[in-house]
Amino acid sequence: MIDPAPIYEAGTAFWKSAVLFAACRLGVFDALEEAAGAAALAQRLDLSERGTAALLDACVALGLIEKAGDTYCNTQAADRYLTRRSPESLRVALEMQAATYPMWMRLSEAVRNGQPVITPRDLLGGDPELTRQFVVGMHQRALGIAGALVDAIDLTGHRVLADIGGGPGTYAVLMLQRHPGLRARILDLAPILEVARTLVASSGVGDRIEMVPCDATADDLGNGFDAALVSGLLHRMTAETSQRILRKVYAGMASGGLIAVSDLFTVCGGPAMAVLFGLQMLLTNDQGSAHEASDVASWLAQAGFVDVKITPLAPPLPHTVVTARKADAAP
Question: Is the pTM of this model over 0.90?
Fold first, then answer.
């Protein structure tokens, strides 16, 4: 018999997402910071007892909640990532992801005409509230991979980091916290930087960060930096635009400088998350995709960089970092 399990699993995968999103929206994880039974929790949250019990048991089955007897409590992961009080909370990012569900139901439409099903500029300043949610969501997602990314990029001895398309500035902040002698410039669209300023202000390193309004696709990136980070930017760009940005980084970078390009790149056709992310770009952007890491490495070499290396971050993270160096000036 040919196993139909992969088909069935794909067809019902949204059930799991619906459980997670509903539990977040109803405040289940916040309420279960103190263990409780289904009846008590239903009363606390003004929910039906039948529905609460069914949702809690589904969360248990998904490994989000633990159950002992008739009492439920959060797992360690839920306490860390799904409660509002946690500094590592992913709630805003998940709410943004939940809002994309109707968009994914229009995937066949996007595939047919090759156009996004939302207005891309709404996320990039056109709608102030959506922009705020987008930037905060980026910050929360970035915290999830920040430690691995910072470990993968050694900026020891470097002086000025250009964080191009730096969004909320999460990575720049962590790089500066790791390297006390480093300064940073965050280059991004002005509406995004307005939100980022609030996040950076409480970082403890804000006095070493310069905010530079910039459209990397059209504007000059400046010069005088000896390190550059291009993270989560190229997936919104075509191959041609990506190459143009990398050439501009090369032109502005000091000799001996280091560039790190991080994203959900595909490597030999995977991982699945990166491939699916490419579809999300189809739904939300009028260009861009999940580029192949080997292509990015080739673009860096063509721009003039040397010592190009591809480093996948440790599982379960699906991200890949491509690093390269601008050769030292000839004596």
Answer: no
Domain at 103-325: CATH code: 3.40.50.150
Per-residue pLDDT of the chain (331 residues; tens, 9 = 90+): 899 999 999 999 999 999 999 999 999 999 999 999 999 999 999 999 999 999 999 999 999 999 999 999 999 999 999 999 998 888 888 888 888 888 899 999 999 999 998 877 666 666 777 777 777 777 777 777 777 888 899 999 999 999 999 989 999 999 999 999 999 999 999 988 998 999 899 889 999 999 999 999 999 999 999 999 999 999 999 999 999 999 999 999 999 999 999 999 999 888 898 899 899 899 988 888 999 999 999 999 999 999 999 999 888 788 899 999 999 865 5
Its CATH class, for the domain covering 5-89, is mainly alpha
CA 183/CA 197 separation, integer angstroms: 16
- Contact assessment for residue 140 and residue 80, using Cβ atoms and an 8 Å cutoff: no
Please give the full DSSP string across 96-162, using - where no structure is assigned.
HHHHTHHHHTTHHHHHHH---SS-GGGTTTTSHHHHHHHHHHHHHHHHHHHHHHHHH---TT--EEE
Domain parsing of the chain, residue ranges: 5-89, 103-325
